[in-house]
Design brief:
By secondary structure, the chain is an alpha/beta fold. It is built from 18 helices and 26 strands. Helix 3 runs parallel beside helix 5, helix 14 runs parallel beside helix 15 and helix 15 crosses helix 16. The N terminus is likely disordered.
Length: 525
């Protein structure tokens, strides 16, 4: 059977027991997808791989085209390792295996992975958390509120994957499609009702979530990050914006105090054109004309503090914790949280807005928020005597500013800030983070974050360009933490930023066991 563009489409019936089988017929995976299959469509497959070195007997090998490598160059190695099917975007045929020709291998990878696990997202209520900062915190606040309302919840994000109390490690905020669908399948098997997924900008651009139409989403905020990849704020902005389309999400809960949020709520791109130098020309990241000509009619709910919106607060009290009175669609009630900071008030409002839409009773919302005592790697406070240390994931200019502003408001002595920056990532934010630290901290210790393949001293030198007050450089992060603790006086507050709850440090491709909080607890006396 041929599709509208003349390509061949395999049409077969799909069976639910597919994901339970150790092997699955190729026909069940390509069913309904616009592709050209050359060879035996009844071939049994065991898994779907994108790394030719990891391919085993009867696997599908998908030729992804990346920034540095083209999977098509590794087909022969994949076949040698046992691949029985090759998915390619080229008009080639590999005689020794089944060849599946597609237009976009990334979309095909996502769709085939979903089909391999019997489209698990369709059996769950899915919630996407989208934004530069606050995704993890928002995810776990939402998880707590839903669980207070006796809902079974799974979470996929920066801290890994949690399903019914079981935790699975994940190296990415949004896992690659095969693993993303695998975890969703595990949720289905465990009778999970709500799947909360942190959706990164990279995941949007690379179509990792292709084929998933989220029931709900929360947009937290937008600020600079990942310019090593997106190259400009315009590209990054439009990539985030491109998520909010009717094929990706049904209902969006949006921060009305954020510029991207206001563009979403009003549909007026001109609000951001000057701020982010948006141009009408099309590039690999976006086309403004295409975006606003298409039908993007999704339901939108607004929340905020400054601008008119559906869910807002009054009488905000900040300190070691948060309290405020919320007006959620004219339902008014008091909210108290153990979390701190104005930025967390926004995270709480986003959750309250969504849960109000879901019909969660306000008593359960209040209870769920109250139950959140601490989120791993997010403003984790360790106290010994009169000395306090905060471990936090803040790794952007905006995140560090929010963190230090909060810490300054509660610090009785000196505010000491220890941080670095990730290697092989956005270099333009390094100097800016140095300026923020100089503005808010009394003493600065510069060190390594995850240097990856960059020289740690070069990364630190980039940060130094923004420093304008007393600082120390201790390249080894463990030594830096011990050093910073040794500089503390009574009533000082030490902020350790950048890695949060991470348990590994990446240096030259090797992942070493490392956790900021564990080191602090060992050496803080």
């Amino acid at each position: 059977m041929t599709g509208a563009n003349g390509k061949f489409i395999i049409v077969v019936s799909f069976t639910k027991e597919g994901k339970k089988e150790k092997k699955m017929e190729l026909s069940k995976i390509v069913n309904g997808y616009d592709c050209n299959v050359i060879g035996n469509c009844n071939t049994n497959i065991s898994s779907i791989k994108i790394d030719s070195k990891s391919v085993e007997k009867d696997d599908v090998f998908v030729c992804l085209v990346g920034e540095r490598h083209d999977g098509n160059d590794y087909v022969l190695e994949a076949i040698k390792n046992g691949a029985s099917v090759v998915v390619t975007n080229r008009k080639v045929v590999y005689d020794q295996v089944v060849t599946v020709q597609v237009e976009d291998t990334r979309k095909a990878y996502a769709y085939f992975s979903s089909a391999f696990f019997d489209f698990p997202s369709k059996k769950l209520k899915t919630v996407a958390i989208v934004g530069t900062n606050g995704k993890t915190t928002t995810s776990y606040i939402l998880k707590s509120v839903l669980e207070s309302a006796n809902k079974k919840v799974g979470v996929i994000g920066t801290l890994g994957v949690v399903v019914d109390g079981e935790k699975y490690e994940s190296s990415m905020t949004t896992p690659d499609p095969f693993y993303l669908q695998k975890y969703l399948s595990v949720m289905v098997d465990n009778s999970i009702e709500y799947a909360i997924i942190e959706v990164s900008a990279h995941a949007i651009f690379y179509n990792k979530i292709y084929g998933i139409r989220f029931n709900y989403s929360i947009f937290t905020n937008f600020s600079q990050d990942h310019l090593d990849f997106f190259a400009s704020m315009a590209n990054y902005f439009m990539t985030k914006l491109s998520f909010f389309t009717k094929d990706k999400v049904e209902v969006a809960v949006i921060n009305s105090d954020d510029l991207l949020g206001r563009v979403l709520l009003t549909g007026n791109i001109n609000l951001a054109k000057n701020e982010y130098h948006l141009k009408d020309s099309k590039n690999k990241f976006y086309s403004i004309k295409r975006y606003f000509e298409d039908d993007y009619n999704i339901s939108k709910i607004s929340y905020g503090i400054e601008n008119p919106c559906d869910v807002f607060l009054i009488d905000l009290k900040l300190g070691d914790n948060i309290s405020f009175i919320v007006n959620s669609f004219d339902d008014i009630f008091l909210v108290k949280s153990s979390l701190a900071g104005r930025y967390n008030a926004y995270n709480l409002l986003g959750v309250i807005a969504l849960c109000s839409v879901l019909g969660i009773d306000k008593k359960k919302i209040v209870e769920g928020i109250k139950n959140v005592k601490q989120i791993e790697g997010r403003f984790n406070l360790i106290t010994r005597g009169n000395k306090k240390v905060v471990v936090d994931f803040a790794h952007t200019e905006d995140g560090l500013k929010n963190l230090l502003t909060l810490c300054r408001s509660t610090c009785k002595g000196r505010l000491i800030c220890l941080f670095g920056a990730g290697g092989n990532r956005d270099k333009t934010k390094r100097e800016k983070m140095g300026k923020v630290a100089s503005e808010y901290a009394d003493l600065i210790v510069l060190t390594s974050d995850n240097p990856r393949y960059e020289n740690p001293r070069k990364i630190i030198a980039d940060i130094e360009k923004g420093i304008s007050k007393e600082y120390f450089v201790v390249e080894d992060r463990k030594d830096a933490i011990i050093f910073a603790i040794s500089k503390m006086h009574d009533d000082d507050l030490l902020v350790i930023a950048g890695k949060g709850g991470e348990t590994k440090q990446e240096i030259n491709g090797i992942f070493y066991d490392f956790n900021d909080k564990n080191i602090v607890e060992k050496y803080l006396r």
